[in-house]
Protein 1
Amino acid sequence: MKTLPRFIILVIAAIVAFAPLVIDGQTKSTPKAWTPPKTPWGDPDIQGLWPGQDMVGTPLERDRSLGTRAFLTDEEFANKVKFSEEQNEIDTAEYVNRNPRIARGGRFVTCEEDPNLCRNGVRIGPPNYWDERGKPTKQASLVMDPPDGRLPPLTPEAQKIQADRAAARRARACATAPGGCHDTWEDESLWDRCITRGLVGSVLPNGYNTGNQIVQSPGYVVFRNEMIHEARVIPVDGRPHSNANIRTWMGESRGHWEGNTLVVETSNFLPGIPVANTPTSDALRVVERFTPTDADTLSYQLTVEDMKTWTKPWTVSFPLKRSKDYAVYEYACHEGNYYMYNALSGARSEEKKK
Amino acid sequence: MRFIGYLFFYFIAVIPAVAQTQAYRAPRLSGHPDLNGIWQAMNTANWDLLDHPAQPGPFSQTGAIGAVPAGQSVVEGGEIPYKPEALKKRQENFAKRMTEDPEAKCYMPGIPRATYMPYPFQIVQSQRDILFVYEYATANRLVNMGPAQKAGSDTWMGTSNGRWEGETLVVDVTGLNGLAWFDRAGNWATDRLHVVERYTRTSPDHLQYEATIEDPAVFTRPWKISMTLYRKVEKNAQLLEFKCVPFAEELLYGQFKKKD
């Protein structure tokens, strides 16, 4: 190498450095070349707090009117900022609001306009200040592929499963009860039961508990999510997947480094875990890419492949911003789950009244 | 003769004991002992911290499967210094353990119980902080190795501040909510619980664990447990997932299920 002119070395270095961009170009992200520090054992060091709270206001799917335009115009963005300021005003106002304005579909509605959101003139659900709102961004949706920012169509198989489930629900005696079906705990969602939000739900920006933390050790990266205290231990030592007979809610992850990008492939999921409100199959496979693009930004990309459920893979992509002071609290969701007692005992109590 | 006796004791007993526990120098990570690995206790402390004979389990339906293996005390001195009324509560806990042990409900195990549950845990030690990930109930806790932080609120797994004392990782745990038990025998503490843990590698595959337990509401003095933790040495060793909420729902919510 000593005999090579410096120019040639630079050209080779540039090719090596930008090669991942060419590959990434196909998957809709263009991380800048930036070299993170190394851990003492030589891996790229992406440790730290990476909460997803900034992106809470960005919808999963893009408004159809935007078509394949992934980013808002300056004018659209200005409207979003205005909306966010109004929301902030509502959130910080004195609570016990007898005539609340509730954000729905990009505007604010009152109880009169949508009585389903209220009871006796008071909003149903947590108070406004409870929710994270995120920061207005120009990104029009979390889904960046397909190019229209919408989830691909369901397969005929998945459509049939959905239709059968819906029919089975309608056929139940509780279907017409005011609060819906609460015959058993299995009528509640995995999230309400505090089992898990699943891999995808644990990282997608949500109204609360958006903390993410990365801790690395030799041969491992741990992606820790505040939501229902997940800690996904990802081996990066090249070991193969274990037998698919061991299926789990969070799946089994295997990672490797492609340059400075951590690529994590996860499979062996239990069937039925909802992703974007759709129950997934045993064929679910998730590929995540964590690319540091500067000292405080981690480009995060997540591709969902489940050919039994969606007709093609889809990808969400958004930046995670480093926080120095985000506090990850213990979310003892199951331990404090009075919702389950209330939902089930409330339904039994309603039945007795009849 | 007595002098020679001491001398004999010193050379035969003390030196080898010291050599075994103190002379081992663990491999280093950023200058500190490297505690990375998947570890598990191999004792019956989760059934009862104290000496106990083999005994039937709480449910006759599962026959010998649910029985309790005999075990030796992990408590130094073999006794937990309860105040009289606190001892009574322990006995009540034991009587109600089938429904009231937080483990039965799949609640987080707290510290120190997480360490000796019959499930492995992984120490994920970086050059800075250290994450403990427990297979049971996906419980986990970050041990802050920076300037000590006050507990923001009481939690099941507490607030952990760590420091190195030579070969030993010392973890000071406060902010525990006092709802976790120490074992299936109903040993307990309140939210005044303060635990100081000490982790010391004594060989490539052994980790010595000690915890000093203090709670002036329940105990007359601090007391100590100690045990050996073993590395899972299998090539394919990994933490699996034990999300036990679905296993506890019948117990917790069964009474509110709709009867056909």
Protein 2
Amino acid sequence: MWVDMWLFINNNWGQIGVWVLEHLQIILVANGIACILGVVVGIYITGKGREGIADIVLYFASIMLTVPSLALYGILMGILSALNLTSIGFLPVVIALILYGLLPIIRNTYTGIREVDPAMIEAGRGMGMTEWQLLTKVKLPLAVPVIMAGLRQAVVMNIGIAAIGSYIGAGGLGQPIFRGIANYRPDLILSGAIFVSLMAIVIDLLLGKLEQLTTPRGIRIRR
Amino acid sequence: MIEFEQVTKVYPDGTEAVKKVTFKVEKGETCILLGPSGCGKTTLMKMVNRLIPITSGKILIEGVDNTKLNEVELRRGMGYAIQDIGLFPHITVAENVVTVPNLLGWPKAKKRQRAAELVELVGMDPVEVMDKYPAELSGGQCQRIGVARCLGADPPILLMDEPFGAIDPITRERLQDEFLKIQSKIKKTIVFVTHDINEAIKIGDKIALLKEGELVQYDTPAALLSKPKNDFVAAFVGADRALKGLRLTKVEEVMRTSPPMVKVDEDLAVVNRRMEEAGTKWLMVVGDDRKFLGWVGKSYLEKSDRLKDIIIPPAATATRSTILSDALSLMLSSVIGNLAIVDDNGLLEGELVFDDLYKALRRINVE
């Protein structure tokens, strides 16, 4: 089986490259959008008097995670075809991944900002920062490590979920897995699984580095 | 100048935090808002820069109602320092210090220069700390930077909420001394919140004593100690009023300005004679320019034939503006018992003798 897998990989580098790129594309688009949306929503719900909204948003975002991905793809296909949009392939998968990725990002943005030391916010406001300056100069820089951790979690989780997207024709590294299941070819399943895992590990490492780079130097220092 | 007119704060839950408080803080004065916790002192201060909205009454800043001013500009126009310091950990000390100049859009070079000036003003080495992060400083250093930061754009008014609250008593005393020194140079109008009566007496020109949101007495520290308006004030300023009075008196008021002394090149026989004339076992030794070098003790005279070799360098000296309570603790910690008073350059100005201090203490008691 391992030998078969190795032979398959070795003879199909071109095909595997295409799958990897397709997979990456889905992940980048979905998580790029989830990141922007998640941070914006996360910031919005930290606003004064929005504790109620925050609870609702976080509740729905976590409910989202309990929906099985296949079911979600199915639901989205229904909705998209009713709207006369492409109901299979790239679009429904990207939308599903955005929905899955939102929770960790919204939650971490929310907690990251809420946990900024109130003394700093009071000092900033007392010195005449506008609410916008308070957000961009104090709250966000201090919340960056937490937000980045959320993004990292979302991306790694989505790499796995994206593989299932091949089932509805989105391509990517799910292709060899599903093909392997259908034709009883463990070598195919293994190749797909190994590349999905590799991708998750590599991207997690890269995002870890990014997390370090974006963390302001002053808060990396531990007394 | 800051004028409080019938200032009242009622919170939405009905708590009356501040009740019809009226008083005036003159330009260049340090006004202490003093009182037990929950007396409304912090609320009162925060209404000045509108961090807390006023319910009724007025606060006039240089004659202008502060609710007529733009909130953000109002705040940028007054320094603000808080007990928890609130230094931003993600930016350097220099960037922290010029937070307000940064908001005001000063050019980079000017900000850098201002940061260096301020770091130096609060007694730290700009080269050493400017590019450090707050996490690399000690608690006392952070407090200093907090004070430097509130002076950032050189505002005429400073609001300080227990700025020396969260540090050990020794560092605290030192910061208070430096605060007095700095204030004597910069002459800001300061509203300073504290619950510490000793701190209030030491650094306040005026003290506003509050109780349950009401202004009980607004007076100079001396008047508060000597003429407490009612039992609450008397109890709050405390039973050891005479000792506290020592904090009100400066060394220059009781020191001897022409104390017995010898020059360093004097013959030992002369030194001995001078001691007998003055009836003392210790004499101060000065250099040619009256620079204070140390003490010579009677029992040391036989140990050498040159005065220079038997001088005991001073363990502690004080200046004219040292307050008597500090001078007393310096005296108690030294074997000599008397204290040399020097100026900033170390030139001898006088001597503080325990007897004089005792007399001052009795005088305060009688008053």
Protein 3
Amino acid sequence: MGHLNAESLARLVDDAPRPDEIEHLAECRACSSELEALRAQTRALGALPEIRPPLGDWEVLEARLRSEGLIEEPGLLARLTLAQTPPWMRAAAAVALFFGGTMFGVTAASDGSPIAALVGGAEEPGMVAQAANLDDAASAVRVAEQGYVDALARYRQLLEDNGSSEDAASGDPRSRYAALEYLVAAGQAAVRQAPADPFLNGLLASTLAEREVTLRRISTRRGNWF
Amino acid sequence: MTESQVIRQAADGDARAIRTLYDRYAPRVFAVVRRIAGDDELAQDYAQEAWIRAIRALPSFRGDSRFSTWLHRIAVNAALQALRRAETRRKREAPFPAEIPVGPRGGDTLLQRRLERALDTLPEGMRRVLILHDVEGYTHEEIGDALGVTAGTSKSQLFKARAKMRELLTVLDGATEESGAEAWGI
């Protein structure tokens, strides 16, 4: 019997060989080796791993699902209520608010500077506590966000007025930029998970703005190369 | 939250639930579609189509089979139908490429890369049968149903495809470097 052809060998990966084939395979090293290689090939094909889709695939799909009405647009309630927010996210928000408030308080109280006067601007908890409906609550969120941005701007201005550099207060800008990069990536991931979450969107927007400011500061310090 | 709860929420259009299903199964869906398509760009289109179909059909998913199996079938059918449509449009038989395309892969071994490259170069008919049988574990009867051919035709195509793969891999390896079972480290 001559050598087994390729298709016969491929068949023997699954099927039992006939007696003449058994006899030939026992004698022919080339055919038995080729059959073993085909078996190994088949095993390897069966063990091929999954393949991750390209980056941005979900965003494209999500847009299509929305355009076809297969994803429910979140209502106002869903956008504003924290009831549907996962516990970890609520905890993260609470921690962020706690540390943010603490840092602000420490900064304001540490040197008795006019910054302390800013604390007065935050004395509007009644507005939040008295919010009786979602519109009021949303409005309180916007006011608080604006208040934070204003306070930060004022803080920077007062630092300059007092002859302190912001670098001294916030550390090396390059390290800061690296940390902000990390936060931006985390923020973007979080917003993808919960695109309508006002806290996460606000956090991401602030982080992006801070990153831009820090980048500008690095560029200014470095001076022009030309 | 259990998978059936996630599926129910996804069927109601909950974005987060749909995203959960996507995160869990997208690599599996993309893998089968990519291998059937033999092309990255086509694969992305076909995978998207598979997901759209699956999300649309979710309300009719009753849990008779595992969700992963159900989704996998949808992905295979979506890819096969899309290929058929493309074939009808182009009226072409896949030409044997002069160059071997190398698609992006993450974290795979040299052997897996060689297999993927060889798969990409197989003629479409052979590739489909080989992927469905040897990669995805379909029976010849199931392949016959999916492709509209007899189980015998599927078998015959499979043997041809395996032999062709072996030939391609030998070419890819460089015939002088490796041969026979040594190429597989056995």
Protein 4
Amino acid sequence: MNTNTSKNTYHIPLVMVLAFIAGFIIMAIELLGGRILAPYFGSSIYVWGSIITVFMLSLSIGYLVGGKLSLHNPNMKTYGCFFTGAAFLLLPLVFWSNQIMEYLFLLIEDPRYGSLVVSLMLFFLPTAVMGMIAPYSVRLLVSTTHGSGHVAGKLYFISTLGSALGTLATSFYLVLWFEVNQILITMVLTLLIAGAAAIMTGMKYPVPGHIDS
Amino acid sequence: MAQLKSHLWVFLLAMLIILARDAFAQNGVRYIHQERSLYRNILVTEDSNRRCMRFTITSRSGQNQSCRFHDRPMELVFPYAKMTLSSLLVQDNPRRILIVGLGGGTLPDTYSTLFPETEIIISEIDDAVYRVARDYFDFEETDRITVDVGDARVYIKRAGLRGEKFDLVILDAFNGEYIPEHLMTAEFLQEVKKLLPENGMVVANTFSTSRLYAAESNTYREVFGEIYNIRMPGTGNRVIVASMQPLPDQATLEERAPAFRDRLEPFGFDVTEYPQYMSTDVNWDTSQRILTDQYSPANLLNN
């Protein structure tokens, strides 16, 4: 067992930055979701209802699974895999969304259920994986029971701030300057880079400083 | 006791005055109905001349969507409606019409009066608009006029799959701020084009004063080729006319106009005045990128 008990806290700022990025990207994709679905399912209120429902559901499942995974050897490599995994799971959205939506548009008459099923197919997996990031981040940063609420508060602050900025930046500026796919691809690349940074750090320092097993 | 009673009367009178003042806004305009639908606030106002439907975003602002004069209900109030009707000079006698956006029902009523045998389908996303039009603007569905409540993009996509055709498609969707982005893209216009038979025509009500002017114009041109732009002084609207056939030139429209004058006169305008406002000139920046499903920042470019 690695008995390195030095106050090695290199990973704290990295986790904070990554949590911010995750928050940003989750909301950016949710906002783009409406734009992506509109040509096939319209922009009625139930389309937004479907998108938000799926995001909430996916995140909740992600939180549960991420929390569970944090019980077993919490480390930066696994953490990084959430990011790279989410990046790959977003590829169908980038490259095959039109085909998927066309198929479901033809299959399902009612645009309410059509939009719900499409949202599940396009957003569930990547969002669930990104949901695992939040609880896992808490586990990586918490060092004492006494400080655990404080750590969680700081993390949620950072990631929700990311969400707010992701919402604002996407709806105010990004859609004005870029195509939907350009924005999505940039996010995929950002997730890959973020994941790679975490994984490489994890390979260099296998056990984060203050984590007690 | 008497003093209490008189205080009570004063109080009641004051309440009545406050309520009345609320009901009677400026300029003698009364708010006779207000409704918040899923998509917007709908306000029905009335003054001594006319009754109007308004979409508002903030509490009492917004523009009138549809108005009707009390004493001359058939007369078209807004220039954009007259410009739309003048498109008959390009293509007459539609047997099947699709209108996107109901408003107060002005266009369906006018077209059904002109063409009683013509089938008119209106696609309106907001059930509340439909009810308000029915309850306050005498709009009626008949065996020739039907309303499909739902998103027009979905309706048009499905109609295309069913192979349906419409001689005339009028695009008049408005969400209170602008036209919905997914109803302005090249892909959408291609889906509309699929509904047009050989002599089909598209007439779109949009704006001449937005930063989207060039982008919209280029998008229509990309899909339909040459288009007519109808612009008039005194209005910020402009109407685009696109056809599956080559467009007749302005001189031809001027020749045709007198034959239409009597038919359109009951609606309150002299159509012979309109060819001068109709132009195929390209007076915008043709390098402005077109609007697509990937890139349609419509709501942000409007002011």
